[in-house]
Automatic annotation (TrEMBL):
Transmembrane segments: 12-32, 44-65, 86-114, 120-139, 151-171, 191-210, 231-253, 280-303, 331-348, 354-375, 387-409, 415-432
Keywords: Membrane, Transmembrane, Transmembrane helix, Transport
Domain RCK C-terminal: residue ranges: 618-702
Protein name in the entry: Amino acid transporter
Family matches, as InterPro entries: AA-permease/SLC12A_dom, Amino_acid_permease_CS, APC_superfamily, PTrfase/Anion_transptr, PTS_EIIA_type-2_dom, RCK_C, RCK_C_sf
Compartments where found: Membrane
A Pfam family annotated for this UniProt entry: TrkA_C
Membrane topology, from the record: Multi-pass membrane protein
GO cellular component entries: plasma membrane
Domain PTS EIIA type-2 span(s) in chain numbering: 479-627
Organism name: Mangrovibacterium marinum
Length: 704
């Protein structure tokens, strides 16, 4: 991916939590409870609980793909890379429009609540808010998330106080007659189980903020941890507040009044907050409602603008939409999204939108659950999620069936609206994008098992994503580099002879069959083009007989001619640096992450000339390890580290997360053990966690 089209990774765990949570608290809490109670009566809070449970399979599926493919575009990117660009276009345009609708109505909500204080037309305030949030989005996702964090913290404080005060007043305050409260819950299910399911589908839109995380996954630091954890925390917190908050509303508001109340939270709060000055509690709840609508509008503009950005990058929409400004934000996509929001504010009403938005997103969830099955069954080795959905494929089948059942309860108008979006997206693909896109989804890799063709470039794209994500905790890359064997060729040699000699060396060291590893090194792979770098060759093999990876590095100053295939063109390159990596066959994805790390090192500017300039094996290994995770210390008299001289390594106290990986003595390097006695002028290579390495660096200032 070109640097100009790459978004900054600025978002942490709390940013993920606040974007998701902020996107869910608006109409779901401040508008829908009263409307939803028409379908099921006082059991409406159970409908919210049921909806939270029913979204879990789709959340797990979304989290799995997002940790494997952290790219802007969310559902669009996932469907495009799994089911192909046609489904990507349908999912992208449909989800984009649904998010824009939801954003527009959230901003109208701001106008409605602000109009209580100021005599200004609702839509005028909504449009002004659109411009404000557009400005925040243009200056970058991190600044947008800071505003989002403020909204969410304020909102959660008010709602938690609302719930605590409400539960106290219901169960412990003598001012409320408990029998009267109990009467609000009889009959509990006014329309039976069917009404409860209809309610769950109706309020399902309240939890769709979870999907917004996937659309900004490219901008999240440590996505393999922060995405699933942030989504789970957000669902738990949001679900608890919805269920308890709506329970308080049902308890305090007479059932027939609740069914027609468009502001049930404001109505309920009139009976609460008696411990603060008159009407201040109502104003506080109105402020919380405005913060909720503002957070939804802000998060909606942030996430929805990433859909045209990602689709422009993939040529399904005009490529200009993928341009990134100096501040790291897709400015053209943001401007167009803001313009659409303003149009919808001006011309649309709120009636029926909740069901329409829910219906189309349920269709997307069906496809996302199916996409996980496709990715798992396609045998794409570089599909490497940091989080895997439990109970596969039962969880995904359950997600598909849940979506299908809930769609059936949404009614024909909502279904026809979704079918119309699907038709428009399909026509756009066939008449605009089809001629510009030459890729297929992972489903073709699945078909390859049945003798059909597959799109090999998908493997290469996933390898690029693996490289950007980096190593996973526990991957033995540093240890493999430290223990690697380095060979320097002073004489000419042909490529086949080199592979034969290296395979023979592996055979002796690892007690394996030479021919097996030799054949593996020479076998063409779908990811070979991802490992092709000028003057460098990365060869790899997978063996059942070994438990840990082993690496040989060959430096050939004169160069060795090696056959190279790039696309449909075959030729030869002169190779001066060879990496031979043999890994356990049981952990193929770990090998791919290590290969991706090697490629990222090789892509350093001037790599070949720098590594060839080192004659010392320790310095070569340190160059390959070069990052914030290691330091080099020489034991000299008169320095702080002199206290190590003459001591066994096991008696020296280091932080628990560091390791003395190499000792150089008399120009020879070796990995030490606990009984190794350190000597004066020894050079230690210490690896470990960045914080501990930084502290050691401050103590031992002798860098070699």
């Amino acid at each position: 991916m070109a640097g100009k089209n790459r978004l900054k990774k600025e978002l942490g765990l709390f940013d993920v939590f606040s974007i998701s949570t902020g996107a869910m608290f608006s109409s779901g809490f401040f508008l829908l409870p009263g409307l939803a109670s028409q379908f099921t009566g006082p059991s409406v809070f159970v409908g919210y609980l049921l909806a939270a449970i029913l979204i879990v399979p789709s959340m797990f599926s979304m989290a799995e793909i997002a940790t494997a493919l952290p790219r802007s575009g969310g559902a669009y990117f996932f469907l495009d890379r799994s089911l192909g660009p046609l489904f990507g276009t349908i999912g992208g345009l449909g989800t984009y429009l649904a998010l824009v609708f939801k954003t527009a109505f959230a901003l109208v909500g701001i106008g409605a609540y602000a109009a209580i204080f100021w005599d200004i037309p609702i839509k005028t305030i909504a449009i002004a808010a659109t411009f404000i949030f557009m400005a925040f989005n243009l200056v970058g996702a991190k600044k947008t998330s800071r505003l989002q964090n403020f909204f969410v913290v304020f909102l959660l404080i008010v709602l938690v106080v609302f719930i605590i005060d409400g539960l106290y007043r219901i169960y412990f305050s003598p001012q409320v007659a408990v029998p009267a409260v109990n009467e609000h819950f009889s009959p509990f299910l006014t329309h039976g189980l069917e009404g409860l399911i209809t309610t769950a589908g109706f309020v399902f839109v309240s939890y769709l903020g979870l999907t917004k995380i996937a659309s900004v996954a490219e901008e999240i630091r440590n996505p393999e941890r922060n995405i699933p954890l942030g989504m789970l925390l957000s669902l738990v917190v949001t679900g608890a507040i919805y269920v308890l908050g709506v329970f308080v509303m049902v308890s305090l508001i007479e059932p027939t009044q609740l069914a027609s109340d468009l502001a049930p939270a404001a109505t309920a709060v009139k009976q609460l907050f008696k411990w603060i000055p008159d009407h201040l509690g109502t104003y506080l709840m109105i402020g919380a409602a405005m913060a909720a609508f503002a957070s939804t509008g802000n998060a909606g503009l942030l996430s929805s603008s990433r859909y045209p950005f990602a689709m422009g990058r993939d040529k399904l929409l005009p490529p200009a939409l993928s341009r990134v400004g100096k501040r790291g934000s897709p400015y053209l996509s943001i401007l167009i999204t803001a313009a659409l929001v303003i149009v919808f504010i001006l011309v649309l009403s709120e009636e029926g939108i909740a069901k329409m938005a829910s219906t189309f997103n349920l269709i997307i969830f069906m496809l996302i659950n199916f996409a996980v099955i496709v990715f798992r069954k396609s045998n794409i080795q570089s599909y490497d999620p940091g989080f895997k959905s439990p109970l596969f494929p039962l969880m995904q089948i359950a997600g598909i069936l849940i979506s299908f059942v809930l769609i059936a309860y949404m009614g024909w108008p909502a279904v026809l609206f979704s079918l119309f979006i699907i038709l428009v997206a399909a026509l756009w693909y066939y008449y605009y994008a089809r001629a510009k896109v030459k890729r297929e989804g992972a489903i073709y890799h699945w078909f390859a098992l049945l003798g059909q063709h597959q799109h090999t470039e998908l493997e290469n794209e996933f390898m690029i994503i693996l490289k950007e994500k980096g190593l996973r905790q526990g991957d033995p890359f540093d240890e493999t580099i430290i223990k690697s064997t380095i060979f320097r060729l002073d004489e000419g040699m042909d490529f086949e002879t080199l592979v034969e000699k290296m395979s023979e060396q592996f055979s002796r060291e690892l007690d394996i069959q030479q021919q097996e590893v030799q054949d593996d090194f020479l076998t063409a792979s779908t990811i070979d083009t991802s490992l092709t770098i000028a003057e460098v060759a990365v060869l790899f093999a997978k063996l059942e007989e070994i438990d840990v990876p082993t690496l040989y590095i060959v430096l050939a100053d004169q160069g060795i001619r090696k056959p190279v295939t790039k696309g449909n063109i075959s030729g030869e390159d002169t190779i001066k640096v060879f990496f031979f990596l043999v890994s356990p066959a049981a952990d193929v994805r770990m090998q791919l992450r290590m290969l991706s790390r090697i490629v990222s090192i090789v892509e350093r500017e001037g790599f070949v000339s720098e590594i060839l300039a080192h004659s010392n094996h320790r310095k070569i290994k340190e160059y390959l390890l070069q990052n914030e995770r290691f330091i080099t210390v020489q034991l000299l008299r008169g320095t702080l580290q002199a206290e190590m001289i003459g001591k066994p390594l096991k008696e020296i106290k280091f932080p628990p997360d560091v390791l003395v990986a190499l000792v150089e003595r008399n120009q020879k390097s070796f990995p030490p053990h606990g009984n190794t006695v350190l000597e004066e002028r020894d050079i230690l290579t210490i690896i470990g966690e960045p914080t501990s390495i930084s502290k050691l660096f401050e103590s031992y200032m002798t860098y070699i």
